[in-house]
């Protein structure tokens, strides 16, 4: 937020020694800009926020944005932890650092991965999802949670 923002303004995050990050900015009003950027492979730290209007006038908010690294998901338990291969099963996963919209799958070497459906993150510590186990090879499978930032357990 600030003042004097014009339609078409460019927002850039700057940190010494790092490439500039161009933000896909939307000027909501003369006092508010929102935006998104890809943080993958971006160095954590404190960045200056630079807004440049189409007429090349700019303003800088020193140390205006801090990028942190989120911790990877941690999977502690699954309930149930035993099932047959006769159809759909609902599983509750508990742990930590679950983000919205993760990919959840069960994996076993030599077998195709089985993706969960109806994945619902109820909290950063709980996911409920379904697996169709109809006809899968019996034996021990591992559960994998992949957060949208690519980190996995």
Explain the overall architecture.
The chain has no helices and twelve strands. It is mainly β. The strands form three sheets. It has a five-stranded antiparallel sheet with strand order 3-2-1-4-5, with no helix packed on it. The protein has a four-stranded antiparallel sheet with strand order 6-7-11-10, with no helix packed on it. A three-stranded antiparallel sheet has the order 9-8-12, with no helix packed on it. Strand 2 (21-29) and strand 3 (32-36) form a beta hairpin. The chain starts with 9 loop residues before the first strand and ends in a 7-residue tail after the last strand.
What is the quaternary state of this protein? single chain
Q: What class, by secondary structure content? A: mainly beta
Strand order of the largest sheet: 3-2-1-4-5
What is the helix tally? 0
How much is the average pLDDT? 94
Helical fraction equals under 10%
Total beta strands: 12
User: Strand content of the residues, in percent?
Assistant: over 45%
Elements, N to C (H/E): EEEEEEEEEEEE
> How many strands, which pairing sense, and closed or not: the largest β-sheet?
5 strands, antiparallel
Distance between the termini: 37 Å
The low-pLDDT segments are: none
The Rg value, from CA coordinates, equals 22 Å
Shape: elongated
Salient structural properties:
single chain, 153 residues, mainly beta, five-stranded antiparallel β-sheet, four-stranded antiparallel β-sheet, 51% strand
Chain-wise SSE layout:
Layout lengths: L9 E5 L6 E9 L2 E5 L8 E8 L5 E10 L6 E6 L8 E9 L6 E5 L6 E2 L1 E7 L2 E7 L9 E5 L7
